[in-house]
């Protein structure tokens, strides 16, 4: 499933950036930019601290 939004959290393995892919408020992907091998325990650590993307209200172009 392709993500609609990407947020960034600290990778618990290397403290680098981990990309979190979201569809709505549902986390669908996790990938460490440092290419860490994310075990289930590391993924759970990221999930526990993950912040879902804020809902964004887009204003019409004519406003």
Q: Which structural class matches the secondary elements?
A: alpha+beta
Q: Could you give a short account of the major beta sheet?
A: 3 strands, antiparallel
What is the radius of gyration? 14 Å
Strand content: 25-35%
Pick out the low-confidence regions.
none
Number of helices: 1
Shape: elongated
Number of structurally distinct domains: 1
**Largest sheet: spatial strand order:** 1-2-3
Q: What is the average of the pLDDT values?
A: 85
Number of strands: 3
Give helix % range: 10-25%
Characterise the protein shown here:
This protein is an alpha+beta fold. It has one domain (5-49). The protein has 1 helix and 3 strands, in the order βββα. The protein has one helix at residues 40-49; strands at 5-10, 17-23, 26-32. It has a 3-stranded antiparallel beta sheet, with helices on one face. The radius of gyration is 14 Å and the shape is elongated. The model has no long low-confidence stretch (mean pLDDT 85).
Write the layout of secondary structure elements.
Layout: E1 5-10, E2 17-23, E3 26-32, H1 40-49
Antiparallel strand pairs: 1-2, 2-3
What labels describe this entry?
63 residues, alpha+beta, three-stranded antiparallel beta sheet, 1 helix, 3 strands, elongated
